[in-house]
Design brief:
By secondary structure, the protein is an alpha+beta fold. The protein has helices at about 30-50, 110-120, 135-140, 165, 170-180, 185, 195-210; strands at about 75-80, 80-90, 95-105, 125, 145-150. The protein has seven helices and five strands, in the order αβββαβαβαααα. Helix 3 (about 135-140) links the parallel strand 4 (about 125) and strand 5 (about 145-150). The longest helix has 17 residues, at about 30-50.
Length: about 210
Amino acid sequence: MVAPHRRAVARPARRVRPVEDGVQPLRPLVEERALVGALRRTRHRRRRGVAEHRQHHEPRPSARCRWKGGPAVHGIGRSRGGATTKVHLIVDALGLPLAFEVAEGQRHDIVCAPALVQRTRPRRLLADKAYSTHDFRAVLVAMDCDPVIPSSSSWINPPSYDKDLYKARAEVECTFSLLKQARRFATRYEKTLRNYAAVVAIGCALLWLRI
């Protein structure tokens, strides 16, 4: 190039060396058949008005856990009061807790009763009408446990029970009343089942320390 004052601005062109492009061709990330199938499925779902699914093939939880955590896994259920949790508890004659289990609020009491009885092995059990079932009574009889449980009005031939001894069932109600003095027990703030079960265990341990 030459400027208006007739002086050379740049040197004359010399030999240009060819520069090779070392970039390798990219491999196809998705096979052609799989891509065509995904496009057809997407077009079909749009035509039917169905919401789009996840873009990843076979979505699953992270590799660090085996399953996804949900409300039911952490003992949170649905009832008339909303999201609730129920604590199943067995106490001794003095009202001291022996075993407990945390479950969803809508789960019936009789579901967790056999497991708690197997853990404590009582000689005599006082419970309300919710535990008056043939299967649960059979479990108690097999353990040589005397059931003191009133029957509901639907029984044709209800078994007899000691009404005076049944009055001692109020001990478990007093135990729940003492546990509910702790706000963390009465109102669940913990999300996971492990943390809330730890709160229940601490409350039960404090009752034993009162002796």
